[in-house]
Each structure stands twice: as structure tokens, then as C-alpha cells.
Amino acid sequence: MSRQVRVRFAPSPTGPLHMGGVRTALYNYLFARRHGGKMILRIEDTDSQRFVPGAEDYIIESLKWCGIGIDEGVGVGGPHAPYRQSERREIYLKYAKQLVDAGWAYYAFDTAAELDALRKEAEARGETFAYNYTVREKLPTSLSLSVDEVEARISRGDQWVIRFKMPENDTVEMDDLIRGHVKVNTSTLDDKVLYKSADALPTYHLANIVDDHLMEISHVIRGEEWLPSLPLHYLLYKAFGWTDSQPQFAHLPLLLKPTGGGKLSKRDGDKMGFPVFPLFWKSPATGETARGYREDGYFPEAFVNMLALLGWNPGTEQELFSMQELTDAFSLDRVSKSGARFQPDKAKWFNAQYMHRKSDAELAELFQPVLREHGVEVSDELAGRAAGIMKERATFITDLWDLTCYFFVAPTVYDEKQTKKYWKGDNPARLAELREVLAAIDDFSLENTESVVNAWIAEKGYGMGQIMNTLRLALVGAGKGPGMYDVTAFLGKDETLRRIDYILTNLKPIE
Ligand code: GLU
User: 10 alpha carbon to ligand 1 midpoint, in Å?
Assistant: First the structure.
């Protein structure tokens, strides 16, 4: 790749960033890192109607949570600042006028009522209305009005827009790094608005092309929903005379519903109980909320790993990738053309895999807030050890509480089913015998306790299951938990004996 790689993530702050948008940002980031290039964050906020306060901060925080670093852009700065389009507004009019002067665009003064009338006429003929070569000369535009009239209307303050003059019956040939060669006949396209006098702002199409050019973007990697805009974008590069330096394009496949049909939406998430946004979101306007992966207890590394594989595959069986491994392996050639079906269970699977790989120290840090919420104050050492013993059975950090609570809180009530099953017959008396065996052990390590107690059971000819389940009832209070010697080693001798004494004194055996 001869040109310096410069990619951009260019979201519009119209609401919380969908996980599909995060994936777009991630692929841009991986591509930039892979090729020693730059990742730019540009905020495309020229549509004042759809602007949502808080959305930009949400985008920035989401990228940060995911570990998607920005080299230039909003919040970071850089040689092409500002990177927020609303702060670049003076730039665009000049370019729109340049296209009018070159015959690639025109002023249009039509009102909503005039357009409506034409739309109705078209519908009456059974056609769908398109603003294109068929109507632009019938409407009040700089193509149908005299130069003087156009100037007069502009200077008296009439509202106008500048529209692209889409050629009639021409072919645009395009190349996409994922889709390959694409051809479109221009008669199927309409004359898009490029600039509006009403708010003195460009539309997406104009601002996007001008900024990609000025910011020297080498590759545009974005969602498939922008593929229909590609012919217009190609023609804009041509109209400006920038074809030689125009970026290469890659349109990413959609993220599909778990059932396969259609784009993954918030509604699917609400119905099936999974988030479609990286972070929790509360709309400042409506108060409406949406759940997020972060607040639902996903690790950012697991979320990123899962997203990376939705639409890209490494060509091997490997599923677990750190960000560095993704960077080393990523290429656009392995991005699929067809949509990627999202599987909520797979997201959980990834989280569990990352949980299992965490060290006791990492687990301690994440688990301590949960313990504190339950009123448990323990050392990081113990928090980490308990979590480490049970992590293989957990998907989320919050799962660890149910899995480990008996390590920290002695049982005072006992599971009814287990009590009925084991707190009867010889078992209480044998637990009292076991208590003395345990009391005589000095080295209470897992291995030593295990060998002493097992030898005693064998010597007495007792049933291993009865003894162990009775001990479990005493120490855990229920039929759950890890191996019994994990529990005794964790609790230590004093606490183990205290719990045995407690059950012997307080729980009446079943007759
Ligand atoms: N602002 C557009 C969006 O929100 C950017 C599309 C593009 O990357 O060109 O998706």
C-alpha cells in the first residue's frame, strides 16, 4: 500500500451508537493499526433535525471502553481540526458553489407545496416521484430560471438548496474492496441536496466527500447502508476533479437478527433479552433507556472479540483474540459479503471464556464491588481466591456472588432438600466424629486435609458420599459449591470447626 493509510469513523450523533457502528469503528481501527496508519474520529452533525444531545459523548465513551484508540479527531485534535462538521460550516458553501459553476449542481427554489403537487401527479400516473432529470427543468431551478432571476431570488432571501445534477442514462463503475466491481445506471438515481440555505449547512453527502478529501482519507470503511450512496460519491469526486486521490471503499455487511432475517434492532434485543448498544443509554429528550453491554456485565475484551468475528473470519479455527492479535490478523479480504447473524449465546460464551482466563488478582478487583454491595469486607487475596475457585462456572462477575457467597457468610439456614436427604441417621454423629479428625490436623492445606480425611473414611468403612454431603451441608448450607477440600482450605480450620459446631447444635436431625 503506497499511500499512507488514513481511515475515519464518522458517526452522526443521532442517538446511542449501535453495536454495528462499534464494529465499523473497530474494523477501521484494526485496519489503521495493521497498516501503520491513522484512525480519525469525525463527528457528522450537519443534520440539526436529528441531533441528539449526549450522543457524541456516548460515542466517545463507547470507543474508549472498547479500547478503540483515536489518533486524530474530536476530543483529540490534529492537523485537520476541527473534526466536528458543525464547526467546519464555512468550508462547505464554497465547494457547493464550485459544483454549480462547473455545471454539476444547481440552485433549486421549489417549495414543499410545489414538490407535493408533482409527487401527486406522478402518483396519479402510477409512477413514483423522483427528483431528477425528469423534473429539474420544470421546477424553479437555476436550470430553468434566468441568471438574473436566480440572483434576484437569492439576494431577496428566498430559501434555496443546491442539488447535484445527476447525469441522465450514464453508467458509474465502482470498485469496492468487499463487494468487488459494481455498476449503476445514473437514471435510477436522484438529484440529492448538497447544501441548504435554511440552516446554512451542507448535507451528509457534500460534507462527507469534502472532508474525506481535505482530511486525506485513504480508505472509507463503513456500513452497507451507504452502498446506494456510492455512485453519487464517485461522481462527486469526479465533479471536483479529485478522482486520482479518492479513497478506496469497503462496505461492511449488516449485523442480522438472531433469527437471520433483517437488521439487528433494539427491538430484537428487548424481546430476546440482550443489549444492542455498548453502554447503557438514557435519552435526554424522552427519558427512554436502553441496556448496554458494559452495564450488563460484559468485559470489553469479550465484546470486542465477539464483534470482530461478526463479519470477519481469520481463516483458522481460532476464536479468542486479543486486540493485538486482531490487529495482526485483520484484513478486509476476509470480511464477508453476506450479513452476519448475531447470536446472543455466543456473546455470553465469549464473556465466559474471558472470565476463565482472568487471574485471581484481576477477578478480585472486579469482584470486590459486588462483595461490598453484599456487605462483605474481605482482603483482595480472599476475594480473588474465591472467585478463582468458581470462575469456570461463571459467565458474569455478578454470577460469582451466588457461586461463592458461602465462603464469606456462614450458613444459618440450610437447604431443605439437602437437609432431608443428609441430616438424618448416622450422619450427624459421623460429622461429630469428623470434627475431631479435622481438629487434630495441623496442616489444613487442601492436599493434606484431603489425604487425612479420605484415609479416615476408608479406615472406618464409611460412605464417602454421605460424609462429604453432610460436611457440605454444614459448611455451605446447600448442595452446591466446589470440591469440599477447596472449601475447608479456604475457610481454614477455625471457621470449618465453627460451622460444624453450629449445625450440630442448631439443626435438629430428621427423624
Ligand atoms: N455519518 C455517517 C453515519 O453516521 C457516515 C457514513 C460514512 O462513513 O460515510 O453512518
Answer: 5
pLDDT tens for each residue of 216-265: 999 999 999 999 999 999 999 999 999 999 999 999 999 999 998 899 99
Q: What percent of the chain has pLDDT over 90?
A: 96
From the number of C-beta atoms within 10 Å of its C-beta (0-12, 13-18, 19+), residue 375 rates as exposed
Q: Is the CB of 208 under 6 A from ligand 1?
A: yes
| 60, 421, 469, 511 from 466: Cα distances, Å | 57, 9, 5, 17
pLDDT digits (tens, 9 = 90+) for 167-215: 999 999 999 999 999 999 999 999 999 999 999 999 999 999 999 999 9
For residue 106, list its beta bridge partners: 163
Ligand 1 atom closest to residue 14's alpha carbon, by position in its atom list = 4
For the cut 70, the answer to whether the pLDDT of residue 141 exceeds it is yes
Cell digits of residue 372: 461490598
* Peptide linkage before 167 cis (omega within 30 of 0): no
The burial class, CB within 10 Å (0-12 / 13-18 / 19+), for 288 is exposed
Nearest CA to ligand 1 atom 10: 11
CA distance linking residue 13 with residue 54, whole number of Å: 8
Closest residue by Cα to atom 3, ligand 1, is 11
Q: Measured in angstroms, how far is the CA atom of residue 222 from the centroid of ligand 1?
A: 7
The H or E element containing residue 305 is helix 300-308
As a whole number of angstroms, the distance between CA 61 and CA 67 comes to: 10
Residue nearest (by alpha carbon) to ligand 1 atom 5: 10
Question: Which residue in 196, 263, 266, 493 is the catalytic one?
Answer: 266
Distance CA 21, CA 58 (A): 12
Ligand 1 in contact with 11 (CB < 6 A)? Answer: yes
For ligand 1, mutation pick of 18, 44, 45, 227 (most atoms within 8 Å of CB): 44
Q: Name, in order, each residue with C-beta under 8 angstroms of 205's C-beta and a sequence gap of 6 or more.
A: 164, 192, 194, 229, 232, 233, 236
Dump pLDDT digits (tens) for 306-323: 999 999 999 999 999 999
**Average pLDDT rounded to a whole number, residues 455-481:** 97
pLDDT digits (tens, 9 = 90+) for 375-407: 999 999 999 999 999 999 999 999 999 999 999
417 has a pLDDT exceeding 80: yes
Ligand 1 pocket mutation, candidates 7, 8, 9, 12, criterion most atoms within 8 A of CB = 12
Question: At 467, is the secondary structure helix, strand, or coil?
Answer: helix
Residue 266 known to be catalytic: yes
Ligand 1 center from residue 223 Cα (angstroms): 8
Ligand 1 atom at minimum distance from 11 CA = 4
Alpha carbon 66 to its chain centroid, in Å, reads 8
Q: Answer for the pair 253, 339: CB distance below 8 angstroms, yes or no.
A: yes
pLDDT: is 429 or 50 the higher one?
A: 429
